[in-house]
Amino acid sequence: MGATGNHLCFDLVEESQKRNPGASICAPEGVGGFKDAAILQDYHVLPQFRNAMAKFMGKVRGDRVRFDPDRIVMVGGAAGAHEIIGFCLVDPDEALLVPTSYYPGYYHYLSRRVGVKLVPIECDSANNFKLRMEDLEAAYEMAKQNNIQVKGLLLTNPSNPSGTILDGDTLRSIAAFTNENNIHLICDDVYSAGKPDYVSIAEIVDEDRKSGGSNSLNLDLIHIVHSLSKDMGFTGLQAGIIYSYSDVVVNCVRKMSSFGLFPAQAQNVIGSVLSDEEFMVELFLGAKTGIPAEKRRSGGRNVKRFFSLLVSDKNDGTVLFKSCLVSRY
Amino acid sequence: MGATGNHLCFDLVEESQKRNPGASICAPEGVGGFKDAAILQDYHVLPQFRNAMAKFMGKVRGDRVRFDPDRIVMVGGAAGAHEIIGFCLVDPDEALLVPTSYYPGYYHYLSRRVGVKLVPIECDSANNFKLRMEDLEAAYEMAKQNNIQVKGLLLTNPSNPSGTILDGDTLRSIAAFTNENNIHLICDDVYSAGKPDYVSIAEIVDEDRKSGGSNSLNLDLIHIVHSLSKDMGFTGLQAGIIYSYSDVVVNCVRKMSSFGLFPAQAQNVIGSVLSDEEFMVELFLGAKTGIPAEKRRSGGRNVKRFFSLLVSDKNDGTVLFKSCLVSRY
């Protein structure tokens, strides 16, 4: 099937590239920068790239929240991002709770690679695979009774493969649960772009910070995994992202990213594209500014349209069927 | 200090880029290939890239041996390459023998990351830190007496930091030892380019295959780790290489490379450079064909000159001092 990534904006990317040839260390306009990129081996990643990525991540969430560029850690790919965050937070034979059904890659990235146990939280098709608090609590208790040390909850929202999206209240309850039990909350929101009513954990955190209540969330326990593989279809460019609200975790995963650094060559190119205002406007709004109408694209070539096709508005589990439709575009 | 990579050929690389703009997925001539590169997520890596890399690896060894492109596994960086080969060959708390002094990164890549014990083989400055068979045998026996399960020997040749290069006879003896004791031989030859009298493990293997004797080496135990960080100074492009004579190991490390795939963008660019005959001639011979004399470079801008500065011909331990000199170029 192979259509989980957005293939509908490559024409926009190509146009952006043509507008900004100096960003490429291989194009004549930018080849003078080849050496600097070729020798750059810094897991901090170029600041201008992180700034562009932070802005993009905010845009993906409808500009309802802002991301701190200094909390962004780039890793060579989403698989590497999951493996690294698992390695840093969970010891071998400790566990992460994971709602079912879940992405089978987690077994490889976390269990086989790092030795993390995955404890399933059974979700039912009868309620569209939505995670219920009673199921989360039951799974956690069962793990404790079986002497399984649970270190966190791994949440994919929207879910892969069901497409189910959690509403804000459920997300708040989940965050309160993990906070109360002092376990980590890792949110994989790789499919989050393009849904106007999507609530991200970043918004829950923001809301909590502003409320300043006595039961404030311990932000050292909250982390986000993202990538450009879905929003942008950049599977081959290996742009995995870890965003953590914990300074210690940021520091740790940043060092661990040495095992699969995000190359400078890609930083230049992707940073240029994400900093291109014209590209961003067209990507998220579907209308180009200053481009003649006859050159505008039709047929759903932006993030919102792609994801409205991929994820059913009714959360009725039709994501697999619809992704077949998308693959024909 | 920071001069362990060859910074003397970037001008040649830039010229190659200008000659072959279509190789860049960001230059106008090549941007049409952006999508294919952006969505490529195949740990086999482009065949044309592996062909170019195999040819380059042969050139680095003076064309005295040929490499099979199908045994080349690309990983995002040398650190990742070491970690992956360690993960695949050695279980936690098992050990690798390592001649001293050794690259301190091995401790991070192998011990801390994978849980591999590093058992030192003491080498002495009195004989230029050359590995002696009696010291290798003694270290192996001591490990056995202490119930340490030794799975292999990790050899860096030329050595980092001493610069010591092993002669062919010593290398043959080492290979015979690891073969006899049924342990792996992992050769990190990242600094091997440019020394005319350098003998690589690949030549020992080749020689052994041709002799076809009754004590032939078990090739399933022999593996090479390499990268383009030193020969080409491409530290930031994260081109780590694992080359194994074992089909099982090739298959295993290839799958593991999923955690830090070598991006298609870099495959296009580096593959183009390594396939550029003019570049290869200038890099290894220091003479351009068809280029007017007034445009030829002077002052040591190719691999041989770089490494003749970096590694003392006398193996007298002056590598650190000379690398200071190189850093001023």
TrEMBL record, chains A, B:
Transmembrane segments: none annotated. PANTHER family: 1-AMINOCYCLOPROPANE-1-CARBOXYLATE SYNTHASE 6, BIFUNCTIONAL ASPARTATE AMINOTRANSFERASE AND GLUTAMATE/ASPARTATE-PREPHENATE AMINOTRANSFERASE-RELATED. Residues 31-282 form the Aminotransferase class I/classII large domain. This is 1-aminocyclopropane-1-carboxylate synthase. InterPro entries: Aminotransferase_I/II_large, Ethylene_sulfur-biosynth, PyrdxlP-dep_Trfase, PyrdxlP-dep_Trfase_major, PyrdxlP-dep_Trfase_small. Pfam families: Aminotran_1_2. Its EC number is 4.4.1.14. Residues 126-153 form a coiled coil. Pathway: Alkene biosynthesis; ethylene biosynthesis via S-adenosyl-L-methionine; ethylene from S-adenosyl-L-methionine: step 1/2. Homodimer. It comes from Linum tenue. GO terms for biological process: ethylene biosynthetic process. One of its GO terms (molecular function) is 1-aminocyclopropane-1-carboxylate synthase activity.
